[in-house]
Specification:
The protein is α+β, with helices and mostly antiparallel strands. It is built from three helices and five strands. It has a domain of 81 residues: HIT-like (HIT family, subunit A). The protein has a five-stranded antiparallel sheet, with helices on one face. It is globular. The structure holds adenosine monophosphate.
Length: 121
């Protein structure tokens, strides 16, 4: 079932299409501003992506364009980690191709359920 189209919206963007229900995803939590769904290629036992419903190309653009949505994204990430991993998680926003961003709709990776290393690769 399609949901209402948020603004801004990019009809070509895969995460916008998940937000509107055009593309299926395993949604684990959501609110008015943000949606959390399982990553297609999980890198850890817990690997959930949290996106704003509206289209911003990265976390910096989201912070400028809709700070309330960034708070909602962070709140949902903490909720998922609390529900599934005792509140422990790594929260990663890749921004730009050099940082390994491949989908240009702001998203935070909620990763957990195994021991992490530092520094990240
Ligand atoms: P990034 O490299 O930070 O841009 O992360 C993009 C993430 O989106 C990757 O971990 C992909 O596995 C994930 N991904 C891409 N398409 C989908 C999809 N349709 N459903 C769930 N996860 C996806």
């Amino acid at each position: 079932m399609s949901q209402t189209t948020p603004t801004p919206h990019d009809p070509e963007c895969v995460f916008c299409r998940i937000a509107t229900g055009e593309i299926p995803a395993t949604i684990v939590a959501q609110d008015d501003h943000a949606i959390a769904f399982r990553d297609l290629e999980p890198q850890a036992p817990l690997h959930v992506l949290v996106i704003p419903r509206a289209h911003y190309q990265d976390v910096g653009a989201l912070a400028h364009g809709d700070p309330d949505a960034l708070v909602a994204v962070t709140r949902l990430a903490a909720q998922v980690a609390a529900d599934e991993n005792g509140g422990q998680f790594r929260f990663v926003f890749n921004s730009g191709p050099q940082a390994h961003q491949s989908v240009f709709h702001a998203h935070g990776h909620v990763i957990g359920g195994r021991d992490m290393t530092w520094p990240p690769g």
